[in-house]
Amino acid sequence: MLYVNQAPVSFWLVGLGEQLLPILDGGVLTARVGETLVVRLLGRDGTLNIISPQGEAREVFIGDGVVTVLRKFSANDVGEWFIATDEGTTLMVVVEPPLIKPTVSLLVWLENTTVVATTATGPQAFALFTGTPGEDVYTPGSTMRIRVDGLNLQLLRFDLLRKADRVRYAGRLNEVPYQVELDQLVMSQVVQNRGGVFTVALPGKGASGPLGLKPISYGQYIVRLVTLGENRLVYEKEITVVPESFRGLNRLSRTLRVDFHEAMSRNFTLVVGDELGSIWFLNIRLPLMVFNVYDRTHSQRIDRYRLVLDNSSSSRVGDTTLLAFHSTLDITDYINGTYIEPIRVSDFTLVFDGYVSEFKEFEFRPGVSRTLDVDLYALVLRLVYPNGTVHRGPRTVEINNMTFREDGERVFLIPSEKYVIRALEPKSFAPTLYVHSKDAVLTILVLDNAEALASLRVSAILMSLLLGYTAYKVFRMRKTFYRARSR
Questions:
Q1: Of the residues 25, 70, 144, 336, which has the fewest C-beta atoms closer than 10 A?
Q2: 135-250 belongs to which homologous superfamily?
Q3: Does 478 score more than 60 pLDDT?
C-alpha cells in the first residue's frame, strides 16, 4: 500500500513497452498489430475491464505492482479497445491496421556516369537491393557496433527510435488535464566507449529495451548517440530492421551505386517487407536509356542540344545523353517474383541553339538506345563594323531570346525556321528577322561603342523625320498644284 500524507493512494499505469505511462481518463493510445498491451497498478490490488471493438468485455484482476498482460494484438484486433478501471477511468486504445504490401518509392538520379538508386517506404516497412555492398541493416537481437573517431567521452546515451511521428498522449489525471509528447523510443541506455567503438545489443523480436515505449519491429529506425546531461547529439544514422531469416545476409542496402551502362543492361533484385514479416522478391529494370541526336543534313551526330523531360535525371557524355526517365517511381501492384519494367509515354523537348523542338507521346523504355533524326542547317553570325572590319574575339548574341556568350565565331546548327537575332556585345543597331533554310553566314552590323550606336540611332531618327517632313512638303505642293488646275 502506498501513502501520501498518511492517506492510501494508488496509480494505474499502461504501456506497450518497458516504459509505462499513467492511465488518463479520456486518453487515447495507438497500438499496432504484434504489440502487447500491459498494465500495472501500484498501491493496491484492483480490477479493470478490457472491452473489444465488438463490445465484448473481460474483467481482469491486477495484483499490486505486477505487470499484467492484457492483450497481444493480432490482425483480427484492429479497431478501438477500451480499458475501464475500478476507479471509473476509461482509456481508448486504437489498434491500427497493419501496412500490408507497402508502396515502394524508387528514386533514381545520375552523378556523371554513375547511377544512384534508393528506396523509400513507410516507417513500418522496408525495400532493399540485394547483392550490393551492405549498409545499416540489422535483425532483432543483433549487435550494433558504432565507431566514433576522435571522441574523448567514455559514456554516451544510446537511443533507438522508430522513424515515425511522436506519440501525443492527452487526457485527465485525477481530474487535472495532462498531456505529453514523446519520441517512439524503443530503447535508451548508457553505452561505453571502448577504443572509439560503442557496442549495444538490440532488443529481441517483439520486445523493447530499457525505457522503451514501443517494441522493436520491422522497418525504419533512427540511432542516436547523445552526451549525458546536456543531451548534445554526437552521432545519428538511419537503420533498417529486417526479419531474423535475413540473419547472415550482409549484402543488403537501400541504396545502390553502379556504372550507367552496367545498370542499363541488367535487372536488379529488390526485397520488400512489411511490419508483419511478409517478404516479396521483385525483379526490376531501372528506368535508364541512351539518347543521341543525328543531323541528317550534315550526316553527323551533334552535341549542342539539351533534352528536357519532367521527373527525370540526365547526364551528357560527348554527344550522348544518359537518361533516367523516372526520377521517382512508385511500385504498388506486385506479388512475389514480379518483374517490373517501367515504360513511360510522355512529351519532351529538345533545346537547340535558339530553338526548342517538341516531341509528343514518345515512348521511353529501359535498356534502349534511341537516335533522333533531325534536319539542321549551319548558321554563322558574322559581326561587322561600319568600316567593314569583322569583329574578332568574345561576343554575346541573342537568338529567339536565348543568349549565347562565345569566344569567337562558331557554327550554330538549328532547324529551318524564323529567327530574331541580335548582337548584345558588341551591340547591333537593331534586331534582325531572319528565315533560316540552308547553311548560311549572316552579317550583322555592330558598333564598337555605345556613343556611336546612340549617334547612329539619333541619325536614323533624324533621317526618318527629315524624310517624313520632305514627303509632307511634297504632298502640300501637289495639293496646291491640283487646286490651281481645278480653277
A1: 336
A2: Immunoglobulins (2.60.40.10)
A3: no
CB atoms within 10 A of CB 478: 10
Same fold, 2-96 and 135-250: yes
211, 187 contact by CB (below 8 A): yes
Task: List own/partner pairs for 416-420 with CB under 8 A and 24 or more apart.
Answer: 416/375, 416/377, 417/355, 419/354, 419/355
Q: What is the mean pLDDT of the chain?
A: 89
Cell of 459: 541619325
Distance CA 187, CA 138 (A): 15
Q: What is the dihedral of CA 273, 279, 284, 286, to 10 degrees?
A: 10
Please check the confidence at residue 454 and state whether its pLDDT lies above 90.
no
| Predicted local confidence at residue 354, as pLDDT | 86
> What is the second-level CATH architecture of the domain 377-448?
Sandwich (2.60)
Q: What is the pLDDT of residues 110-150, one digit of tens each?
A: 999 999 999 999 999 999 999 877 778 999 999 999 999 88
CB 325 within 8 A of CB 287: yes
CATH 2.40.10 holds for 2-96? no
- For 118, what's the count of Cα atoms within 13 Å in the CB-facing half-sphere? 6
